[in-house]
Amino acid sequence: MAFKFIVLTCLVAAASAGLVPAAVSYAAPAYHTAPVAYAAAPIAKLAVEEYDAHPQYSFAYDVQDGLTGDSKSQHETRDGDVVHGSYSVVDPDGTKRTVDYTADPHNGFNAVVNREPVAVKVAKIAAPVAYHAAPVAYHAAPVVHAAPVAYHAAPVVHAAPLAYSAPIYHH
Asked: What pTM value is reported for the model?
């Protein structure tokens, strides 16, 4: 009788550990929901811009900053599909770059770039600031050593070898 009890206890322990598959049945959960009320959102009217078959505009700007030496300008004019314009900027190497451009359906985009040396004085914005960090006092906390920990490994139990067969390939 004690032997049967030990065998039964071992089987229950093995099933609990997942070594012996147990019969498990699953059922889908039942959901009860209330009926959903649906109301369509009002449709927003979109503003449609009218197409301009012959667009026309003209704009220009000019920046001349004596403090930083920033110098640039641009102007552009459009009449239908034909665009004429020009822009200039002072490059970091001290030359003024001027680009004259045109664009039309027949010739595409064309640009002519001219560069000319310019003597530009750039004023200093701010004097350099001297910075000295204050010394930081650092004291390490004392090191406390813990008592040694005793460690005993559990005995290793080897399972019976598994049987494996190579897959069979048919041509």
From this structure: 0.42
